[in-house]
Amino acid sequence: MSIINYASREIQFKIVYYGPALCGKTTNLGYIHKRINPENRGDLVSLATASDRTLFFDFLPLNAVVIKGFVTKFQLYTVPGQVIYNATRQLVLRSVDGVIFVADSQWEKMEENVESFKNLEDNLAKQNISIDEIPYVLQYNKRDLENVAPVNYLEYVLNNRKKRVQSFEVVSSTGQNVFASLNAVSQILLHKFSKQSDTPKTAPTPVAIPVEPPVRKEGAAV
Amino acid sequence: MTIPFLSYFKRGKGKGNGAVKEKAASPAKPALPPLEKPSSERFSKTVMPNATRTLAPQDPFEMAARSTALGGQMPAATGPRTISLGPSAMTMSAHHLPPAVALALEPTVERVISLELIDVLTEIPPGYVKPTESIDTSRRVLLKASEVEKGMASGKPTVSLATVYQQVPEIFIRRVENADALQLNLPFNKVLEGFANMHVRADQERAAAVPQVETPFLKVTLEDNEKFGTTTEPLETTEMPPVRIEPATAEALAAAEPEVAAEARLKMWPSPSASPSTNGKTPQTPARIPFKLSPNGTDGPAPESVPASSGPSVPNLLPSPLAPVAGRIDDSSRDEASSPKPGSALPATTPPVRIPFKMAALVTDEEAKPKQEPWLTKESLAVASDVAQAPNVASTVVSETARVAEVKIALPLLPILKSLPPMQLTGDPSCVPPDVRIEFPFALIEPQLASGRISVTAKVFEVSLSASFRGLFQAGPGAVDVALPLQEVLKNLPATSLRMRDDQEEQDAGQNFATPFSAKAEEDAKRFNVPAAPVPKPVAAPVETKSADRAATTEEKTTDPATSPEDQPSGRPLRTPLQVALDTDEKLDAKGVVALVNKIPGVKACSILFGDGLSLAGSLPEDLETEGLCAMAPSLLQRVENHLVDTKLGQLRGMTLSCLKGAITFYMHENLCLAALHADLDLPGETREKLSRVVHELSRKYSHPV
After folding, report:
1. H helix runs in B233-288, sequence order
2. ipTM metric
3. Is residue B558 assigned to a domain?
4. Which chain B residue is nearest to residue A208, measuring alpha carbons?
5. In terms of domains, do B187 and B140 share one?
6. Residue-averaged pLDDT of chain A
7. What's the rounded mean pLDDT across residues B465-490?
8. From the list A62, A152, A166, which residue is nearest B534 (CB)?
9. What are B420-434's pLDDT values in tens digits?
10. Which of A195, B28, B463, B653 could serve as a FRET partner for B321 with CA atoms 20 to 30 Å apart?
């Protein structure tokens, strides 16, 4: 659930990149970190093993003003994909607002994708959250490789639920559709937040409004 | 000596002695109204002070027997037993209780059977019990069913003497210890009768109906049903008691009598032993609870079991060309199959709602012969052949069932063999020609499609191998399953196998909101020349309503590449980033990249170099003799980049050497360098941007080849 701090006029959204090992979650965050204006982002905190695998999680705070009078902070997390780190994944998933499930498109990774998605369902269920209640989108990553499964099969495997979610063909190493998927889940989050704030409450709640896209400054990282 | 509070004690004692007299003499005082606690502060159990609850010592066996085994034969009450229950408790069911309370109140009942004492007495050795004349031998003793049933399989049920002692200690002369191992034989028939008189608990709930899906065992089950005259309906052991619904009026409540419980009667339907004639009346077929069927051939909602890790995601709504069609079976034979056979115990009433089965398409007689399907046991094959030869009514149906065709998909054998662990190989798989295929039943493949991994057991694989290659494979005991290449499986699947469910709801996207990432997403979409829109819902190929001939279908599905899922439209073919950067659909190699870079406005010629100076491809004019410079360029760029760290100029994008006879710009990323000779004095900004992107993609392609 999003955290609203009326004193500091901040709203925090927690978005978790979830998926099997080596599917490109950290690469997603690395690309976002590289592309976002340094003024609007914090440092990318990454706890990795010697083999560069995420040991605990990656963390990237992003600040923006998309809700009038409130600073919106998006906290992007990744989870370790390795099966043995399930306790860590459960920890990172606590109070999650949105999920980007990163699936590896390679043929030999299909089973891991399915297991990881099931694991996501299970871990959310332990928090009494249904996967259908939480905003999430699917990323079919590594679409630039040659040994990838067709999108319709990935859809059949991962997106054949009653509620169809948005899915994106992504190449996280180059950044293709990385922001599109993050944008999609952010929109769903803001939409949900806006709907919730429509309900009458005693305390005044902010209303999400569209704003002009930030102008890219010269000298920003490419 | 003054004892404090003594006066209170005396007053209380005197009050107790003369309480009755005082009560009779003095007028009745109005009773104080009980204090009403808010419901939140109450305990779940309220004890009323005036209610009496006197319980005689109860034997657990006796308690158990009252609730189960004896039915109407309740033993005589051994003492007053009054339990006062409030009206709320009467109406409250376990469903309305908190789970923990409901669990605590759940009756923990031991299964028991009862026998007459005389049946046990005859088996007790002399010296243990009193003379028979002094014992009421007609009374019944209760025996644990779990203890007695151990010997039922051998026809010799026994019970320990200690158990009998626990039940009727008064008939014994001396004490029998629990550890006494002496076993008493019991009359088999009476024990069997006792077991037969057991009935299920009255508060049972019907388990959720599981829709019948097509499994490898369905065919055998159907054959067995025909053979034994059974159905696949779940066994009904107790009829539901009749329910009388009347408006609750005061008169009705006053005149209300307990409903007569339904006569407990074993209904081992459709076993002949439970013939309705035993009761002398024709039983009414209870109204069946309509099952909610899955979308497997129906319009019901689909179960939530996606992703397919938990099994097949959603069964296909469509009659798969491989799926059997119910209408193929002759109506006459179906009628015969569904009607009760003479002598069977099936009541001649309207048949209950049946779960529709999928029946496979018909094939020719030759194909109808039972093949060595992996899931067919020897017994079932024997049954099928026997039944097919038997000239009875069921033979028609069985032969029809036996002719059920199993559509198979063919996969290339070579990659499967190559992926096998060495312990399962007994020869060199490279001797297998690449065009040799191995066939597997689609029924084995389909349930695994959504799991992301498709495998068959080693036994199935061995059976499916042709005889000429069977020597290459050894299943062995404890052999691991054989994984099938998912890519090949999908190539050979029917197009409708991956159909998405039709009742999907779209996500509430909220696209009116601009987020901090909207601008970047649009930028990237332009940069990569791909839409930032999500993947559209895949559209399945049109469905063939008529199931075609099996052979034709198989051939079509296995050989027609146009229907392979890879070729189904999921948008236009995806370009690689390098193709995007150069805006081309051509398959690119180093020379192709050079040719395309030369066509970029402002570029006359170019060369691609590795970081160590070695040239990968190039078209720089030889007369300029730039090889040496190009070889040095990567190290120069690295040095410059090192010095740029100390500046605030930002990341190095390129280095241009402007000379009298021309200009050359070097771009470098990681281990790859691109040298571009200018056509004019300077390069346009767009060209610089493009070249920078090209060298990025080239470095990904050649520095870290996948």
Report:
1. 250-254
2. 0.74
3. no
4. B513
5. yes
6. 81
7. 80
8. A166
9. 887 788 888 788 888
10. B463
User: Kind of pairing, strands B183-185 and B140-144?
Assistant: unpaired
Domain count, chain B: 4
Kindly state whether A38 is in contact with chain B, defined as any CB-CB distance less than 8 angstroms.
no
Q: Provide mean pLDDT across the span B599-612.
A: 88
pLDDT at B682 (0 to 100)? 83
Range of the structural domain that residue B627 is part of: 577-703
With a pLDDT cut of 70, the percent of chain A lying above it is: 81
End-to-end CA distance of chain B: 106
CA separation for the pair A149, A105 (Å, rounded):
6
Mean pLDDT of B573-585: 75
Mean pLDDT of chain B: 64
- Rounded CA-CA distance B16/A207 in Å is 74
Residue B350 pLDDT > 70: no
Q: Tell me, yes or no, if the pTM score tops 0.90.
A: no
pLDDT in tens, A117-160: 999 999 999 989 999 889 999 999 999 998 899 888 899 899 98
pLDDT of residue B197: 72
Residue with tokens 């919106």: A72
Indicate the residue of A107, A113, A152 with minimum beta-carbon distance to B570.
Answer: A152
Looking at the fold, whether B399 and B454 belong to one and the same domain comes out as no
Question: Residue B99 has which token pair?
Answer: 């789970």
Distance from CA of B582 to the nearest CA of A (A): 15
Residue B422 within any structural domain of the chain? yes
CATH of the domain at B604: 3.30.450.30
How many Cβ contacts (< 8 angstroms) between chains A and B?
A: 221
Q: Which of B356, B386, B406 finishes a domain?
A: B406
Over range A5-12, report the average pLDDT: 77
Interval B495-514 mean pLDDT: 72
Same domain assignment for residues B485 and B612: no
H or E element that contains B160: strand B158-160
Domain coordinates in residue numbering, chain A: 3-198
Among candidate residues B498, B526, B556, the one where a domain is terminated: B498
Of residues A187 and A102, which shows the higher confidence score? A102
Q: Are residues B388 and B426 in the same domain?
A: no
- Contact, B668 vs B606, CB < 8 A? no
Same structural domain for residues B341 and B487? no
Fold entry, domain A3-198: Rossmann fold (3.40.50)
**Closest partner residue to B306 among A40, A74, A161, by Cβ?**
A161
Cis peptide leading into B538, omega within 30 of 0? no
pLDDT of residue A118: 93
Residue B587 in contact with partner chain A when CB distance is under 8 A: no
- Rounded CA-CA distance B431/B429 in Å is 5
For A188-204, how does the pLDDT look when each residue is reduced to its tens digit (9 = 90+)? 888 888 777 665 444 44
Query: In this predicted structure, what is the pLDDT of residue B703?
Result: 62
pLDDT class of B183 with cuts at 50, 70, 90: confident
Q: Which residues are CB-contacts of B265 (< 8 A; sequence separation ≥ 6)?
A: B199, B238, B239, B279
B97: tokens are 């209780």
Whether B394 and B464 share a structural domain: no
Nearest to B698 by CA among B676, B660, B658, B667: B667
Beta partners for residue A77, in sequence order: A16, A59
Q: Which of B316, B318, B493, B507 to mutate to test the interface with A (most CBs of A within 10 A)?
A: B507
In a domain, B593, yes or no: yes
* B680 is a domain residue: yes
- Give, in order, the Cα–Cα distances in Å from B432 to each of B412, B428, B437, B455: 10, 8, 10, 21
A146 touches B at CB < 8 Å: yes
How far CA B133 is from CA of B136, B169, B348, in Å, comes to 8, 16, 52
| Closest residue in chain A to residue B488, using alpha carbons only | A107
Tell me, what's the pLDDT at B2? 56
B398 and B415 housed in the same domain = no
